[in-house]
Amino acid sequence: MATKRTKTRRTQPAKPAHPAPRAHARPRAKTRPAPVDDRVLMPENRAEPVTPSPKPVKAAYFNRELSWLAFNRRVLEQARNEKHPLLERVKFLAIVSSNLDEFFEIRVSGIIQQVESGLTEPSVDGLHPRESLRRIHSVVASLVEDQYDCWLNELMPALAAEGIVFKTAAELTPYELAWVTAYFHEQVYPVLTPLALDQSHPFPQLGNKTLNVIVSLDNPATPEVEQLVAILPVPRILPRLVPLDPPGATPQRFLFLSEIIKLCAGEFFPGYRVTGAHSFRVTRNSDLYIDEEEAENLLKKIEEELRNLRRGAAVRLEVEEGVEDGIFSTLLDHLDLSHEYVFRLNGPLNLLRLMSLADIDRPDLKYPPFIPVNVSPLHDPSQIFATLRAQDVLLHHPYDAFQPVVDFVEEAARDPQVFAIKQTLYRTSGDSPIVRALIEASKNGKQVTALVELKARFDEANNIQWAKQLEEAGVHVVYGLIGHKTHCKVSLVVRRENKLLRRYAHLGTGNYNPKTARLYTDLSYFTAREELTSDAANLFNTLTGFSREPVFEHLIVAPYNLHRRIQELIQSEADNAAAGRPARIIVKMNSLVDKATIDKLYAASRAGVKIDIIVRGVCCLVPGVRGLSDNIRVRSIVGRYLEHARAFYFENGGEGEPLVLAGSADWMPRNFFRRIEVLFPVRDPALRRWIIDELFAMELQDNEHARELHANGGYLPVVRPAGAPAFSAQSYFVAAATLRACG
């Protein structure tokens, strides 16, 4: 088994990318709307430099956590948007709940630790940790209130109108009550264990995000005795949403498991009277604490930490409204929580469980089905390597099928001319065909190396299992550099052709996961260009061997030269604008946080560079501030698919072709300095033009799902010109893919 190196490597600056000859063009859509903004498709149009203010303008930054909550608010907007099919709106509501869970597990827990350690230094936005927590609580409280208002007053009535009814225990008919009682005795009672709370029974260690019911009890024989309390922890194995018998009945009726347990809680305490029963849920700190320098075996250390996470400090308590003050105080005392981390909910806990409604057979309440199309030049697996010798290929997922990515690795595993496969794995599916192909390749005698990131958040356990399976099959498993997550998406195949070795590479923006590839928008770039595959080989050698100063000629790699190179590219556009040459920047990413990069963008805006930022989630840059960011627009698209691709456009002074990059990295300190990331230049002119004229242009014209960020922190719908039709970029790409499938 390969071991981790003990020193972080440093490198010399990478050289700038060089132009490449023309290659294959990606199929263009046959129809598209007329542009609504000349600056979208005409990057040579440049704004006049901003006249400097008499006094320097102080740079402004949004708070990272509050910006993330603004993103989750945009997800909630989709749940309330009646243009979406009803069951899709329910899914958006479930996603809001899941997002908040992770937010408390990671971000809020981190700020709490800062407060407890006495840290008072403000972040770049000027907020101290304690003030950040205060504002977070205020925003989350409003968000949760709106979330449950959406469920109770919008989605539940709409579902009932469609024959999908949610009942409480008090609303059950005699027949339904009898069925629920029988279900409880058959399916629930045998697996629940009541835990008393008294001097001889300490408060139990409750699992992270598990459902629990706290029960108040009274002994009729001794009414003067203090009220008794017990907890019913609910194992995850039990379904949280129970369809009432008979199946297929109209209307379809559902009952939350917590309602059943509260209804029948007295069965666990014969001789006692139940005076109250309320469900609650604890969220715990879920960040891993690992000193990799001291971890002799990283895999075993992470397995141990995963077990410890179940006992992490509580950072949030969710409890049903109506719980008695005494019970409430008991929970807070034992969890060591203050009131600001408590949310009393007017409805069922953990709305993520509503995601199971997606399994209901009601196509009329879902998006029209769309099957990703596989009509690219790589549609024939047997011709993959011959095709890539002739041309580069770009795929846009989920509109283009992910299958060619799987075929690339599977064909390499079976091809007798392939000698070696090298693969990064950050997140993958539970039945990963990529992992199976790597195992097959190893059994076929090929040299196979897999860089498995054990610390991929919330996928640690899955990746440990993959690592063990790969090692057992003879694959060289490596865990990357100490202190850096391997987040890049690279696959490299070495093949013998005419007594020479030739390399083929897949470079992507998304994970090697066929399931999420149907839900996330990403880019896949296939190439056999020597300058790119040579750098990819150098990358793998750096990660698996020793290299203090690796030099990458064409790929831009973090933590080595990515941050510096991005600063240089932004500065170059600013210099071009100041010199009267064409200057333009368009970037698409998930998050923009890094202060140095934001400051460079501010400087470029002041120099007259027109900048468009398409950012899905967190954005700490403040657009539209006079004298600071007049020339910067920021928009976010939240729709049917999760926007996950990262792509970057630099006009490059009008000299030669513009520089177009794509890859795995957002503009955050962690991506620049604490992860292995790769940005790759799109060499083929036609593919480069597709990114400019299609990907960027369509998303900058979206006036349906796009929201524009304003200087006050609000995300408002894009203003639609009078008479202009609604336009959704995601709908456009679905239609374009359908046209390609039809030839």
| Rg for CA atoms | 28 Å
> What general outline do the C-alpha atoms trace?
globular
**CATH architectural group of the largest domain:** 2-Layer Sandwich
CATH topology of the largest domain: polyphosphate kinase like
What is the CATH class designation of the largest domain? Answer: Alpha Beta
Question: What's the β-strand tally?
Answer: 27
Provide the low-confidence segments as ranges: 1-54, 289-296
Number of helices: 18
* Average pLDDT reading: 87
Tell me the number of structural domains.
Answer: 3
Helical residue percent band = 25-40%
Our measurement of the CA-to-CA distance between the termini, rounded to an integer number of angstroms, reads 49 Å
> Largest sheet, described in full?
10 strands, mixed
What is the assigned CATH homologous superfamily of the largest domain?
Polyphosphate kinase middle domain
Overall SS class: alpha/beta
The proportion of residues in beta strands is 15-25%
Description of the molecule:
The chain has three domains: 212 residues, 2-Layer Sandwich (Endonuclease, Chain A), CATH 3.30.870.10; 300 residues, polyphosphate kinase like (2-Layer Sandwich), CATH 3.30.1840; 171 residues, Endonuclease, Chain A. It contains 18 helices and 27 strands. It is globular and about 90 Å long. Helix 2 packs antiparallel against helix 3, helix 2 packs parallel to helix 4 and helix 3 runs antiparallel to helix 4. With 743 residues, it is of the alpha/beta class. The longest helix has 33 residues. The N terminus is likely disordered. A hairpin with an 8-residue loop joins strand 5 and strand 6. Strands 14, 18, 19, 20, 21, 23, 24, 25, 26 and 27 form a ten-stranded mixed β-sheet that branches. Strands 10, 11, 12, 13, 15, 16, 17 and 22 form an eight-stranded mixed β-sheet that branches. Strands 2-4-3-7-8-9 form a six-stranded mixed β-sheet, sandwiched between helices.
